[in-house]
């Protein structure tokens, strides 16, 4: 689309000034600003790089390189530019703000927290940053401070929906569901179509009456139409959960299916070949021969515990049980392993990416990575008194071969659940993070089979200590299974482990409401209520429908 003549004229003048006075960096910034306003990001980037050798000591040119990448939503690309700017001038508010948002987008909430704090110390009034700081604090386990930050945000911006719903979420993860409901309802009062608020509210309450006002309002809103896809999907999942509470199983499944269909349309399509290829690459990279002959060890520490399994298979409950022990700290779902694996090639200048890159690790690199991870665990735990610290990122089964190298004395707790129940529970959870296999029953069965195969491979070939927890057995006989868990961790028994629902730690996962309840068997065989809808799942599970 051609630019308006006035913009063409301004760009020509700015370019002339920049070329005739290359030593004047302000002319470069003015030109870049105009190019960004004209959405000519490629030209802006190439222009900045042309003048970079002249002005590389100026923080502003690095900041502008980051801003251009940010505007193109190339957040990973933007991060080093903002870091370069802040190395030269640590008090640049734009760099601090945008670097925080980049880190927030990629799930590096610890770094995001640091940069948001730095920005707010300079410019204290920014709704997006204040709200994002509260969310980041909740993700790194500082729930009480998150609540305080979000309460202040709500006071300053009482009509803003995100702080209201995020305050509700922060209260929910600490078990304060009644207080959370107040803020969800306030958001719904402002905007009855706000899907996140309805979802949060219905997740924090157990319903028994299909005519409850919360359900009636949500159904009226969704029937009226006119919602964004995101809000409609959130409302559909919320209604499905509430109808399931009321044992209206046909109504519930209809809502869950509509919500999943919307999310599937919005997201990335599941590609079995892509996943199967990736799992095969992992097996090939960590072949039995490689594992037998690769003698490099990162650390002999026994502190790390990794809880893995499919989502909704009891990982949160298991962590809540072991974290009730005074010598165990539950760190929640950490992204360190996945980020470190993804960054191996760039960090060490390898010619391969993960998983193949692992073969290029030397002793110093493995030691550095192991020390970095354990330092991160201790930082989160806040004390060295804990003998065990758990990371319960379920998908860490992608990285068990790497764990075998970095921490050969680590313990692996593998959580298993009856496959139909596990997959149905995933299908009923509104995963907004674009897990492509979660929104279709046949895709779920296919993915489950790949997961089961890789877990069998690891248990056959790794030297790590494994303990398998069957969810059905855990909820049916919690005392026996909890004692087995603590024994596996080589710790003395503690009766607190029988009352995990009373543990006051933050649980920032989809299961935060469930782990606040006493252990029960109500979710066993739930799939039977929906069996008539599950043939695509059962067929795609194949041999693993009894895994």
Uncertain residue segments = none
Question: What's the end-to-end separation, in Å?
Answer: 57 Å
Q: Fraction of residues in helices?
A: 55-70%
Biggest sheet strand line-up: 2-3-1-4-5
Q: Nearest-angstrom radius of gyration?
A: 25 Å
Count the DSSP helices: 26
**How large a portion of the residues is in β-strands, by DSSP E?**
under 5%
Backbone shape: globular
pLDDT averaged residue by residue: 92
How would you characterize the largest beta sheet? 5 strands, parallel
Count of strand segments: 5
Structural class: mainly alpha
Structure description:
With 547 residues, the chain is mostly helical. The protein has helices spanning 5-20, 25-37, 41-55, 59-71, 75-88, 93-105, 109-122, 127-139, 143-156, 161-173, 177-190, 195-203, 213-224, 229-245, 249-266, 272-285, 288-293, 315-323, 336-348, 363-381, 400-406, 419-427, 441-461, 471-476, 478-488, 535-541, and strands at 304-309, 328-330, 388-391, 411-416, 465-470. The protein has a five-stranded parallel sheet, sandwiched between helices.
């Amino acid at each position: 689309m051609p630019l308006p003549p006035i913009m063409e004229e301004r760009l020509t003048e700015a370019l002339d000034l920049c070329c005739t006075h290359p030593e004047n960096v302000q002319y470069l910034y003015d030109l870049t600003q105009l190019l960004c306003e004209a959405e000519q990001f490629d030209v802006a980037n190439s222009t900045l790089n042309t003048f970079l050798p002249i002005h590389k000591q100026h923080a502003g040119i690095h900041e502008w390189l980051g801003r251009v990448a940010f505007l193109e939503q190339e957040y990973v690309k933007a991060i080093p530019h903002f870091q370069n700017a802040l190395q030269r001038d640590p008090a640049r508010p734009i760099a601090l703000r945008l670097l925080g948002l980049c880190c927030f987008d990629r799930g590096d909430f610890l770094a995001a927290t640091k940069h948001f704090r730095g920005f707010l110390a300079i410019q204290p009034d920014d709704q997006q940053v204040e709200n994002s700081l509260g969310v980041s604090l909740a993700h790194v386990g500082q729930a009480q401070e998150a609540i305080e930050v979000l309460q202040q945000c709500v006071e300053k911006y009482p009509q803003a929906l995100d702080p209201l719903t995020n305050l509700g979420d922060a209260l929910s993860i600490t078990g304060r569901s009644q207080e959370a409901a107040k803020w969800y309802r306030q958001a719904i009062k402002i905007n009855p179509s706000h899907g996140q608020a309805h979802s949060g509210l219905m997740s924090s309450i157990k319903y028994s009456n299909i005519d409850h006002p919360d359900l009636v309002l949500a159904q009226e809103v969704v029937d009226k139409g006119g919602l964004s896809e995101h809000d409609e999907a959130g409302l559909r999942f919320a209604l499905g959960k509430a109808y399931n509470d009321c044992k209206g199983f046909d109504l519930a499944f209809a809502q869950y299916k509509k919500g999943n269909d919307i999310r599937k349309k919005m997201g990335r399509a599941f590609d079995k070949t892509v996943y199967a290829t990736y799992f095969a690459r992992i097996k090939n990279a960590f072949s039995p021969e490689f594992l037998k002959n690769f003698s490099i060890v990162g650390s002999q520490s026994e502190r790390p515990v990794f809880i893995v399994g499919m989502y909704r298979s009891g990982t949160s409950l298991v962590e809540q049980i072991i974290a009730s022990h005074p010598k165990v700290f539950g760190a929640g779902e950490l992204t360190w392993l996945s980020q470190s694996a993804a960054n191996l090639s760039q960090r060490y200048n390898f010619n391969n990416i993960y998983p193949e890159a692992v073969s290029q690790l030397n002793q110093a690199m493995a030691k550095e990575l192991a020390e970095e991870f354990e330092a991160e665990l201790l930082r989160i735990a806040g004390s060295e008194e804990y003998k065990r610290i758990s990371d319960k990122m379920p998908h860490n089964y992608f990285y068990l071969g790497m764990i075998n190298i970095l921490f050969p004395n680590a313990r692996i707790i593998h959580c298993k659940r009856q496959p139909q129940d596990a997959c149905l529970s995933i299908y009923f959870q509104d995963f907004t993070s674009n897990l492509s296999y979660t929104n279709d029953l046949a895709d779920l069965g296919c993915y489950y089979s790949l997961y089961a195969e890789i877990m069998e491979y690891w248990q056959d070939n790794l030297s790590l200590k494994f303990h398998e927890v069957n969810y059905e057995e855990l909820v049916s006989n919690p005392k026996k299974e909890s004692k087995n868990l603590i024994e596996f961790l080589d710790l003395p028994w503690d009766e607190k482990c029988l009352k995990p629902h009373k543990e006051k730690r933050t649980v920032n996962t989809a299961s935060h409401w469930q782990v606040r309840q006493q252990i029960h068997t109500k979710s066993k065989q739930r799939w039977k209520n929906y069996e008539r809808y599950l043939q695509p799942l059962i067929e795609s599970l194949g041999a693993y429908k009894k895994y």
